[in-house]
Amino acid sequence: MFKQLSQLSKNLTDELAKGLTDEMNEGQELIDKNSDLPADIQARLRKFDKYEQKYPLLLNAYKLEKSKGEKLGVLLKILSENTPISSLDDFDSLTSFFQNTNLKTDMLNEEIKRLTTLNNEQTLELEKLRCGRKTSNGQEDEIPQAMTRNPEHTDENFDEQNKEMVQVKEQRDGLKKELELKNVEQSTTAATLRALESETRGSADATSKLQQDLSECKNKLENEKEAHQKTLSDLEEFKLQNDKKTSEVQQLISKRDEIHTADVQHTNGSQNAQGLGRDTQNMASKSKKKKRRCKNNTMGNIDGVSSINSDQSSKTTNSLSSEKELKEALENLEVCQKKLKDLQQQYDSIVSEHHDEGQRETVLQDNESEIEALLKEKDESVQKLQECKNLLKEKAEELDSNKDILKSVGNELVTAKDRIKDFESNNKAATDEIKSQLEILRNKNSDSIKNYEITQNELRKKISALEKEKSSIVEEANEVKASLNKRNQEQEILMTNYKRTEEAFTKMKKENSSLSDQLRELATLKRSESTLKMSVTQKEKTIVYLEQQIKEYSVKEDQLSKSVRDMKVENTRLSTKLTQLSKDNEDMKSNVKKSEETMEKFIKENGTLSERLEVLKEKHETLKDVKSVSHEQVGVIRRQCDELNIKLKEANKKIAYLEDELNESALALQERTKEASSMRRIISESQLTEETQIQKLENSLKSVSEEKDRLENELVLQSAVTNRNLQELREANEGLKSQVQELLAKERNFQSEMSRLTALKAEIEKTKSESTKSSHELECAITELRAGLSTSEKKLRGLETANESLKELNNDLTKKLDRISKNYKQVSNQLANVKERNISRRPSRSNSVLSIPDRASVEPLSRHGSHTGELVKDTHSDVNEKIAYIKNVLLGFLEHKDQRDMLLPVMSTLLQLDSNDEKRLMLSIR
């Protein structure tokens, strides 16, 4: 019996050892690499191997999803800025948006076509207006020609023609203004056309970009949906695996409870050794199967199963001994007693061992709880260490970024200081230059105003002298007319005396002379009538043509006003559309932000779920590994916890040190930012002051330019007045010429009459001898004729002297007219040059500073060019002014080294220098 029991126990122990060796071999195959290390570290290393296998995959997946999310966010921003989409669900509204954009582009193209047609029409109208302007200018040129052709008109006709000329000029000015307005409107329409074309191009580009972004968004959405579905399926698989593992754990727990209950029942109700052996074998096989199913179970469970089997074996031995004692009876009582004693000893030892095993189980449970608590502390410390590492990394990155920011801020401060210095130096130089130029301009303006006043006074003096000359010429003409009337009266008296002698002869000659005079007067009257009729017809034609042009311009103005109204309506419509689009854009942005927030929430929830799953897996694995770990783990874990606590303290110290450094860097950054903000304020203030100074200078320049324009306008008006005076003087000269010609013709008539009278005298002398009665009368007539001849000769001499004086005056006037015309041409050329220079130098502000000496050199020439002819001979003040001007130019040439190249041509023109003289001058100065 005892042999059988011992064999059974040996078999059980062998089987248990085999199962343990199988499990240990399977575990050792995995721990061969780290066999030198303790078991807890090996379990940790297994965990880390699993993490190392899983972590890169999860990290890559997270990076891909993050990059996709960032790209989607950028795409949604682009769509929200350029389209009415506010979230990922509003892709259907893109079709309507693109349809609206296509409609807008079509509308804009139609408007462009319409505006191009209007532009072409306006260009045709402008060409017509220019042709009309040319014709009107031709007609105006013809009118003074007709005036010069007909010098025999009276003063009334001249006044009427002057009035008509003024009206025509006013009409021409009105037409010019209308032309300028039309040109301005055409330029505005062209600008609007260009703006609309650029808008259409921009809208077309935006639509193409939006379509591309849409396609990319759709593809990314599909990819992200697929990735989201994959993550959901992975989550479901993880949940299923977790549920399976929890169910397996519950099954193992229930099986262990069933094994305990079955062992208790077998100890109470088993009487057959074979049944007990079989039960023990079954239990051993079940335990082996269970161990093979769950390879990671603890050593404590195996010890519990062995203790249960030993109890069963002891009880079966007791039952066998009782049966044998009944058969053998008293023969073997002593042996049985001895054996019973041994068995009792063995039983006591087994019971004590069983109690020890219970105590060990309690100790193991306590150790397990301590290990779990230590593991929790270790996990917390590891998490804290990871957080500390992350914080250290973040703070190191922040320190690097702060260093970069500090470097950039320092560089910005250095560059800003350099800029401020350069800016201040440039500002000082520019302000000094501008002030000096303003002073020069003011001086030149004052000089020009003085010169202008002097020229105006001189012109007034000349006009008064010419008026006096005109009045003297008119008085002389009146005197000539009075003398002619007296001569006519004397001639009539002579003719009456002569009628007494030869009435018939004188009557016939008078009739012939009167008829010839009347014929001449008729011819002249017919010519004047024909010229007047021609001028009247021409003026009527011009009036009709101008009325037609006025009507056409009024019609065109109505059309342009209508087009302007249409454009305003379209502008308002487009502005409303723009406001709606901006509102839609804001809605899209808000929706995109909401969708980003929801996506971030989903990603965070996904991360938390994955972390929870990993934590559950880790706990499950730790629970499996903890059951196979003994008391040595506690010491190792405590050591590790101590080391981790030391590392935590060191990390906290480093964190505190880094926080101090961060605070110091933040304070330094704040100081640098304050310095940068102060520098920016200084820069902005300096810019504002400079802008105000520039505005003041620009205003002063504008005022100077306005004064210059005003002076130019006054010069133009004075030139026009001088032209009118010249025309009047020419007309008066022509009238005087006609009067002189008439006087010469009368003189010739008088000479013919004198010859006729001398012939009559000879005949009378011949008839004197024949008629004694009429001798006394003839002598009286002769004496009277002699007296008349003497008076007529005196008057003829006076007329000849007057004619000579008139010729001299005429020559003087022609010379003055030639001089004035030359000066006028010079002034007009200089004005044209000045205007061209102003037009070419207005756009650039930098060139305006350099152009001031040119203007300074041109303006005095233009002022003095009109007075170089006559005033040098007449007035000594003009010479002094020229000397002062040359002195100023020389001083400026010697003082300003920068402006010598600009003033050199002025010097060469004033001093009449050659190229060799200029070279010698420059070499001597250098």
UniProtKB/TrEMBL annotation:
<keyword id="KW-0472">Membrane</keyword>
<feature type="compositionally biased region" description="Basic residues">
    <location>
        <begin position="286"/>
        <end position="295"/>
    </location>
</feature>
<dbReference type="Pfam" id="PF01465">
    <property type="entry name" value="GRIP"/>
</dbReference>
<feature type="region of interest" description="Disordered">
    <location>
        <begin position="133"/>
        <end position="158"/>
    </location>
</feature>
<feature type="compositionally biased region" description="Polar residues">
    <location>
        <begin position="296"/>
        <end position="317"/>
    </location>
</feature>
<feature type="compositionally biased region" description="Polar residues">
    <location>
        <begin position="264"/>
        <end position="284"/>
    </location>
</feature>
<feature type="coiled-coil region">
    <location>
        <begin position="571"/>
        <end position="837"/>
    </location>
</feature>
<feature type="coiled-coil region">
    <location>
        <begin position="323"/>
        <end position="518"/>
    </location>
</feature>
<feature type="region of interest" description="Disordered">
    <location>
        <begin position="258"/>
        <end position="323"/>
    </location>
</feature>
<keyword id="KW-0963">Cytoplasm</keyword>
<feature type="region of interest" description="Disordered">
    <location>
        <begin position="839"/>
        <end position="874"/>
    </location>
</feature>
<keyword id="KW-0175">Coiled coil</keyword>
<dbReference type="InterPro" id="IPR000237">
    <property type="entry name" value="GRIP_dom"/>
</dbReference>
<dbReference type="GO" id="GO:0005794">
    <property type="term" value="C:Golgi apparatus"/>
</dbReference>
<feature type="domain" description="GRIP">
    <location>
        <begin position="876"/>
        <end position="924"/>
    </location>
</feature>
<feature type="coiled-coil region">
    <location>
        <begin position="158"/>
        <end position="255"/>
    </location>
</feature>
<protein>
    <submittedName>
        <fullName>LANO_0F05424g1_1</fullName>
    </submittedName>
</protein>
<dbReference type="InterPro" id="IPR051952">
    <property type="entry name" value="Golgi-autophagy_related"/>
</dbReference>
